[in-house]
Amino acid sequence: AALALDNGLARTPPMGWLHWERFLCATDCAAEPRRCISEQLFVEMADRMVAEGWRDAGYEFICIDDCWMAPTRDEQGRLRADPKRFPGGIRKLADYVHSKGLKLGIYSDVGNKTCAGFPGSYDHYDLDAQTFASWGVDLLKFDGCNSDSLELLAEGYRRMSLALNRTGRSIVYSCEWPFYLRPVQQPNYTEIKQYCNHWRNFYDVYDSWSSIKSILDWTALHQDTIVNIAGPGGWNDPDMAMIGNFGLSWDQSVTQMAMWAIMAAPLFMSNDLRHISPEAKCLLQNKEVIAINQDPLGKQGYQLAKDKNFQLWERPLSGRAYAVAVLNHQEIGGPQNFTFSLTFLGNGLACNPACSIRQVLPASRDWGIYSWISSLSVEVNPTGTVLLKV
């Protein structure tokens, strides 16, 4: 472990903005100037993050995903940004982002090509790490496409981790390692946490309820193998927040925000901050939910019970508190009531001998004091979630 990741970063789940889901691989700036993956897009997002309170709410990373590169490396074998779309280069963009009190994330791939076909980092791990550090990069998302074998995949993730260490720069390391392993073998999460600050386990999130639901179902199904490894310095990453886009209803947006807080998930939005509704902005900047997501105890939540269409989740928090989520999976009809005994929570300790309960989502209000043997009845909209703090 002494030879592994040693950056002291991600003591709480990282927060920021990532271009991929909303902007994909748009590279024709003449045809789509507002969508194009370019210096201008990231400068405009950085400006919005400061002016609209995102930075102050805790969102500190502006992250470039795939498709930022030129099609080939330079004469010295170094990666370079597409010169038309990033005329000032990544160093200039990093300086601008830093001047705003924000941090810059970038993307590469463990294989010989990125998922979109740009140059990968295979056989260039040290050079690429040094390049990113020289540009002032603060986070690397390292994808897993186009690796020739699981052995090379694992070796590449380890080697890039060590290469980032050797630069001496603090760079958060975001991995897709377990996702690419899982079809063939069970990931060794103890090892993965030794090398990565957060890691993807499941498919890319889409702007749809079916996608959010599948991520939650997968997480609950595998919680015995993934929940306990998460904590300060290393987190399970269920992928980006879709809130403020097109595919989720209001209740489904509340569910994603609540459940990402329960899961101690890295909170990276992928939306257009230049065009976001006041409601979506208010939800994403909700201080009480962010405080749960960022709780310093650093324990990931888990599903406690399933009953028909309802799921009950809890997350231990600092100060002997718990976050509790009641999720209604039903997609037909109206609001439904779910009743449970408070003795369920925290192995019977969360409300012993009494506790105060506060609703955080979908709206903030105090519910008062309850005794250990009380039952709680919660009304939840279809595909919605009620998030409580006990």
CATH class of the largest domain: Alpha Beta
Q: What's the SSE pattern?
A: EHHHEHEHEHEHHEHHEHEHHEEEEEEEE
| Poorly predicted segments | none
Using DSSP, what is the number of strands?
Answer: 16
* Total individual domains: 2
Beta-strand content bin: 15-25%
Helix/strand/pairing category: alpha/beta
Identify the CATH architecture of the largest domain: Alpha-Beta Barrel
C-alpha-based Rg, rounded: 21 Å
Characterize the biggest β-sheet: 8 strands, parallel
Family: Belongs to the glycosyl hydrolase 27 family.
Subunit structure: Homodimer.
Protein name: Alpha-galactosidase
Domain Alpha galactosidase A C-terminal: 298-384
Question: Can you describe what's shown?
Answer:
This protein has helices at 20-23, 39-51, 54-57, 89-99, 125-135, 150-167, 177-181, 189-195, 209-221, 223-226, 250-262, 278-284, 287-293; strands at 15-18, 61-63, 103-109, 139-143, 172-175, 198-200, 235-237, 267-269, 302-307, 310-316, 322-328, 336-341, 354-361, 365-371, 375-380, 385-389. With 390 residues, it is an alpha/beta fold. It folds into two domains: 15-294, Aldolase class I (TIM Barrel), CATH 3.20.20.70; 302-389, Immunoglobulin-like (Sandwich). α2 runs parallel beside α4 and α5 (125-135) packs parallel to α6. The longest helix is centred in the middle third of the chain and has 18 residues, at 150-167. The chain is globular. 48% of the residues are buried.
Please give a handful of descriptors for the protein shown.
6-stranded antiparallel sheet, TIM Barrel, about 400 residues, Immunoglobulin-like, glycoprotein, 8-stranded parallel sheet, 2 domains, Alpha-galactosidase
